[in-house]
Amino acid sequence: MINSITEEAIDPPAPPSCLAKGDVLRLLDFPKEFIVGHDTFAMTTSESLKGFRDIPPGTHFLWVQKPEPGPRCGYWYLTKLPGVVRVKQWDRFNEVLGEAASQFEVRMEEASVGTVYPLLKPYNLKEEEAPTPKRSSPTGLRAELSFMTDTAEMWRHLTGAISGPFLDRVTGKKGVSEWLVDSMDCVKGDSRLPVGLATASETYRTIVGSELQFLFSQDIQDLRILDQGPNADTTSRIVALINSGTIPVSEADIVAELQFVFVTGTHLGNTACLEYWWKLVLRIILRALQLSLQRPTLCRWLIRTLHAQLVYTDNNVEPLQQGNSNVSDGPSGDRLLFHSLRQSKTLLHSALVEYKSRINTLLLDLGNQITQEQKEVGYSFEDLEAWLWRCGWDLRKLADGGRRALLDDGDEDEDEDDFPVIVDIDEDGREVGLVSFHRD
User: Can you give the residue ranges of the AAR2 N-terminal domain (predicted)?
Assistant: First the structure.
């Protein structure tokens, strides 16, 4: 009889039916009046929050902040069906959301998930909390642009390339199911310790945060040293990284890096990630012109991701100063993303103008030899250009001071005519008679 009870006790229970819809994320001892962000929404807790339920398959990001301004910490995690129970506990001593105090706590939460399930916030709360888009979206959107009106599709465009192996590499945290990141995390080799403090790695991680390991850190430094101008094509650097064999790098990893630094930088206010995002976009991605010919799928993926990031910044991120947004001149410059680089809007506009001019020439020169994948690159950039047009940006010409801004950023000048060509624009902001690629 005793043996029978023992065997029953150690048999793993069947997964509760409530996990069929997705993961349950339990938050233990979570204080009131904290700010909690989960994927595309954020809320201030008016009562002790117990967690979230029905978290669908995919990549997710949870972050928290105390009521007063200060550092934020967050977790990246991946889910699939059937769901599992994840447990995080507020550490009052270190003031961080960390692991449960013991495995006993975890087992207890797993055993009682059916009871606590109705008390948890549903994942689809984001649909109720999503802010009204500031800029109107055109009607009759194609499937590729569904992220402009569908928050679930938006999140997929912001995080869809991020995988477990990628998170292992970029954070240096392996063998975990949730990857902790912090506002104080820095790029590997870029120590920000106070003067006089030892730089031992353990001390660095304890006092300042983890070191994030990015793929293009050295490439960006090399480009700065070589002082290569906007004509320098970075496609060879991207392709060489994918083909190097030193570390396994796929096209998805390139996109994942762009996605990771945007979400972590935007939601945690992580300076290192925001600075790296600008370097990655301005010095690597928007200079990789031949990528549209050699690896068009990757090129299109990067353009579409950039498009989603700019739309998300405009529509979902709170302004730093209320009432200080110039909606008639490009994306809203009062968002955190645009405050992390001097002359950021001018630099981005100028880089996109240069990119448009050269990518159009490359694709049009293909004539009848253009492939469907290469056409898709043109379509994706047209979509981005049309949205920017509605925001007030014209990519046919450099804005005042645009070339000067590129020079100030360490780039050489080009002997090129800056005067715009007068062309017709359709109602969606696309040029008539230049690059349309005629979607069938």
Answer: 22-172
pLDDT value, residue 397:
73
Closest CA to 253 of 340, 160, 141: 160
pLDDT in tens, 92-102: 888 888 898 88
Residue 76 phi/psi, 5-degree rounding, is -90, 140
Under a CB-based contact definition with an 8 Å cutoff, are residues 327 and 333 in contact? no
Bridge partners (DSSP) of residue 24 are: 85
- In three-state secondary structure terms, 41 is strand
Structure tokens given for 202: 């353990």
Q: What percent of the chain has pLDDT over 90?
A: 52
Burial of 94 (0-12, 13-18, 19+ CB in 10 A): exposed
CB hemisphere CA count around 334 (13 angstroms):
12
Q: What is the pTM of this model?
A: 0.83
The domain spans of the chain are 16-129, 148-408
Contact 36, 45 (CB under 8 A): yes
Res 67: pLDDT: 81
> Cα dist. 230→36, 293, 332, 362, 407 in Å?
41, 18, 25, 16, 9
* pLDDT tier, 138 (very low <50, low <70, confident <90, very high otherwise): low
**The token pair that represents 214 in the structure block:** 């990015």
pLDDT tens, position by position, 368-384: 999 999 999 999 999 99
The CATH class of the 16-129 domain is: mainly beta
